[in-house]
């Protein structure tokens, strides 16, 4: 029975009064507007997790950068490495250089996630392979805060092949696009470094989008939805 304990309904998280008050102050998502891409504040997020199982593995660290006014704003950065976990960790944690003692000394998940959502504000999120990050973040927020994430997530891994159709890299990973655009990454598989690399890639792709007549977050998401639907149709 213990083997399948992750399938059982989770108890509502117990929050302090201060945490409850912070939760109530979090702004709602503003969604994707029809204003210019340069006018949109984006939060580029990367999560390091204990593994790739969407239901059992946990978020260990969060790194985020902000794109605002068409550039990376280095005065707005977020890093909470080592969210504390009480469950056994898989060997994949070694990939991130996170040992058990470092994780045990990490931030309280509720406080770290409250800090992150306050940092996000009402902005949409960008991530490379966003469905994974979105799922893991959604579950972490629900488990630790009882919070329902409704912010828009856009997938940079899908934007890249859509906006660079001449490039044969439709299923390429972040390392591939880093090499293709000659981006410098100091420490891959570190949440903050990966978020910065994703932000740099996103800026290149936004420039490509504007050159193709796509100049609003809403239009970019609509074009991405259409492109993904065509991919599904052509796969049959």
TrEMBL record:
Pfam families, from UniProt?
Answer: RNase_T
Superkingdom assignment = Bacteria
Query: GO MF terms on file?
Result: 3'-5' exonuclease activity; nucleic acid binding
* GO terms of biological process kind: DNA metabolic process
Q: Which UniProt keywords apply?
A: Exonuclease, Hydrolase, Nuclease
Give Gene Ontology CC terms: cytosol
Task: Enumerate the spans annotated as Exonuclease domain.
Answer: 41-211
* Alphabetical list of PANTHER family matching this protein: DNA POLYMERASE III SUBUNIT EPSILON, PROTEIN NEN2
Q: What's the protein called, per UniProt?
A: 3'-5' exonuclease
Report the source organism.
Pseudomonas helleri
């Amino acid at each position: 029975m213990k083997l399948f304990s992750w399938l059982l309904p989770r108890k509502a998280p117990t929050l302090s009064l201060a945490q409850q008050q912070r939760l109530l102050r979090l702004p709602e998502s503003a969604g994707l507007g029809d204003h210019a891409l340069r006018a949109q504040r984006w939060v580029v997020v990367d999560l390091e997790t204990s593994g790739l199982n969407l239901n059992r593995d946990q978020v260990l660290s969060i790194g985020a950068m902000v794109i605002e006014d068409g550039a990376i704003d280095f005065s707005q950065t977020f890093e909470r490495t080592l969210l504390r976990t009480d469950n056994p960790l898989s060997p994949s944690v070694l990939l991130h250089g996170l040992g058990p003692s470092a994780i045990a000394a990490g931030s309280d998940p509720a406080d770290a996630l409250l800090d992150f959502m306050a940092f996000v504000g009402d902005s949409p999120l960008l991530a490379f392979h966003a469905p994974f990050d979105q799922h893991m973040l959604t579950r972490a927020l629900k488990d630790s805060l009882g919070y329902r994430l409704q912010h828009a997530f856009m997938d940079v891994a899908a934007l890249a092949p859509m906006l660079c159709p001449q490039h044969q890299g439709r299923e390429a990973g972040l390392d591939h696009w880093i090499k293709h655009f000659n981006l410098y990454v100091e420490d891959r598989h570190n949440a903050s470094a990966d978020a910065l690399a994703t932000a740099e890639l996103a800026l290149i792709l936004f420039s490509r989008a504007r050159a193709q007549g796509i100049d609003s977050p809403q239009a970019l998401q609509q074009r991405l939805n259409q492109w993904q639907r065509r991919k599904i149709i052509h796969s049959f």
